[in-house]
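Deliverable D4.2, example record:
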Amino acid sequence: MTVSVGVLRERAPGECRVAATPETVKKLLARGARVCVEAGAGEAARYPDAAYAEAGARIGSAADALAGDVVLCVRRPADEQIAAMRAGALLVGFLDPYAGRFDALAQAGLNALAVELIPRISRAQSMDALSSQANIAGYRAVLEATVHYRRFLPLMMTAAGTAKPSRVVILGVGVAGLQAIATARRLGAQVEAFDVRPETREQVLSLGAKFIDIDLGESGAGEGGYARELSAQAQARQQEQLGERLKVADIIITTALIPGRPAPVLVPEAVVQGMRPGSVIVDLAAASGGNCPLTEADQVVEKHGVTLVGITDYPSRLATDASAFYARNLLNLLELVLQKDDAGMRVRLDLDDDIIAAALAVQAGAVRFAKR
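Output generated by the structure prediction step:
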């Protein structure tokens, strides 16, 4: 018995990533799987069909890829694609569990692993697609800020005069925030960072940035390494004490997200009004409502003389490396799923495995995931 793996071409507007690369295709084939890549799946990420064919994959149609025992995607396929999959097949990808759109998957009798639900435990680090893509987003966010900020980031001493280093504030010290700190520091900016989780202070200092200490009266540490929503009193205290520090920043990069909830407001309009003309806010939480209420998702706008960047597809803008990282995440996840026995290879979803149990959002047509 052999397991067939289908790799879809992404159809979401602007999505350039792909869920498998020639490198990971080779490794799947070495494990005994058959792989069918939809024609053109990797083109936008600079992985041509010829490279997949050379790796040993079959290049086929969308229907061919959807016929796999396992179907890999970056973003949730359209309902008509889901309906074309065979009952009992396994779909793996970013499936947006908090949007509550699992009915079509259940009606099709599918199994579905949502990579957003992979727990943040040591054993799952190599499968953590949220972190691999957030790392890319944090890097690209700083580069985007430099494009819109019409001054130098580092100290520049020239015969024509001296430019002071820019002041960059990073709000939220998760994976994206840490990469943003490191990138801004490499570019020579003065960097400060803030997070509601006190344990992030040491990480900020280790990267050569300053930690903004604020007494919130409570910790914002939540489950699984994520932040939790603060009380109304703590939120008010945060905005009051943070506001003046933000007004003197040249660039603010916000990364604060709470799974399944609207993004917390960290940069209210009053702060934007107090910032210097020409300052820039890059809001990585734009897709979830924004850490600044003036942010517009997928738009770059200017308000009160401040440029607000609401781009939501940073990993897609670095699609070659983003795809390579993501494909390796899925390959490592499939190591838990594709099992060999005397009869050959089969798909085994072991609910005694804490990674599978957490990420399996739909099982045999039944929705397992419940929003908290």
